[in-house]
Amino acid sequence: MRAALEVSYADRRLAFDLCWRVGKNPDEILSRAIPHTHDVVTAYLYYVMDRHREATGPVALQLAAMRTPADTQALEAASDLLIEAGKASAAAELWNLLGHTRSGLLSNGDFSEEPRNHGFDWRLIQQPGVTHVQLTPAAGHRIGLSGKQPESCDLMFQYAILEPGKRYRLRWETRTQHLASPAGLEWTAGNSKTDVEPTVDWRGGSAAFIAPAALAPLTLGYHRPTGQPRAEGSVEIRSVSLSKDEP
């Protein structure tokens, strides 16, 4: 099969199917049947992401090591699958191979780059009545609420690699426009939910939490306060950071 795939072209899925019918060991298939050529490894990555997701990690890492910029989209999708499967180590290694370095425990905490919506970067959630605007470099990110957003919705989140059972502290700097108090904005980290105070000037906030798992999302959401209409205004975030909260 390896010899056949070395000279193959076009659709290779039938060949990959045969590999999986003969043997069920993903590592053996990758090492013995899949030639180390870019086209074949790329095709095989799409195949396992579709049909055998448990095999995604080693294939994605092999493709990422070839350092081909055109593979970024596929490899970022692979990183999402690894995170969903709870494979923190493989996901982090792949993210680093893609050149997406993390400063500390978070990626892009100062929003100096447009969020990639994949892997360990910010995921901006598209909701009716919600707009996302990337501000000038290193100036932050703005989220607008039109008053037609859902009464309860997530706005953005990022996965962090943590030590389960350890205490951490999430910190942020925000300012708001035309939002009453309470604004209905809150950060969720583990079992902790902390309000974001409305203020026209930059203000810092923080929340301590216990890591529930090795991979956990840190989420900014909106929940309409009881007795208030849905918010119309915006919040700007210029920094978010995460650190261990030692006693």
- Gyration radius (Cα, Å) is 21 Å
User: How far apart are the first and last residues' alpha carbons, in Å?
Assistant: 58 Å
Provide the CATH top-level class of the largest domain: Mainly Beta
Helix content: 25-40%
Tell me what portion of residues adopts beta-strand conformation. Answer: 25-35%
Shape: elongated
Q: Write down how many β-strands occur, each being a DSSP E stretch of 2 or more residues.
A: 10
Number of helices: 7
Low-confidence stretches: none
In terms of structural class, how would the helical and strand content be classed? alpha+beta
pLDDT averaged over residues? 95
CATH topology of the largest domain: Jelly Rolls
| Largest sheet properties | 5 strands, antiparallel
Main-sheet strand order equals: 1-4-9-6-7
Q: What is the name of the CATH architecture of the largest domain?
A: Sandwich
The CATH superfamily of the largest domain is identified as: Galactose-binding domain-like
Whole-number tally of structural domains: 2
Describe the structure.
- The protein contains seven helices and ten strands.
- Strands 1-4-9-6-7 form a five-stranded antiparallel sheet, with no helix packed on it.
- It is elongated, with a radius of gyration of 21 Å.
- α5 packs antiparallel against α6 (72-84) and α6 packs antiparallel against α7 (88-97).
- With 247 residues, it is of the alpha+beta class.
- It folds into two domains: 2-97; 123-244, Jelly Rolls.
